[in-house]
Design goal:
Strand content: over 45%
Pfam families: ATP11
Oligomer: single chain
Shape: flat
Number of helices: 1
Protein name: ATP synthase mitochondrial F1 complex assembly factor 1
Subcellular location: Mitochondrion
Family: Belongs to the ATP11 family.
Mean pLDDT: 84
Structural class: alpha+beta
Largest sheet: 3 strands, antiparallel
Order of helices and strands: EEEH
Distance between the termini: 33 Å
Radius of gyration: 13 Å
Number of domains: 1
Low-confidence stretches: none
Keywords: Mitochondrion, Transit peptide
Length: 49
């Protein structure tokens, strides 16, 4: 699949919440953009573990 990740803007009371979708075969994985960014920076899983 050429593009397996998508960002969806979901309207909220004050602005938008962005959701990341990733397709893997017949599965779809999703998380909020904020959680994805935190994970990329290593805050949830520091390299010292």
């Amino acid at each position: 699949m050429k593009y397996s990740c998508f960002v969806l803007p979901l309207p909220r009371d004050k602005g938008y919440e962005f959701i990341i979708l990733q397709f893997a075969g017949h599965e779809v994985h999703f998380t909020s953009l904020v959680n994805y960014q935190v994970r990329l920076k290593g805050y949830l899983y520091p390299s010292s573990y």
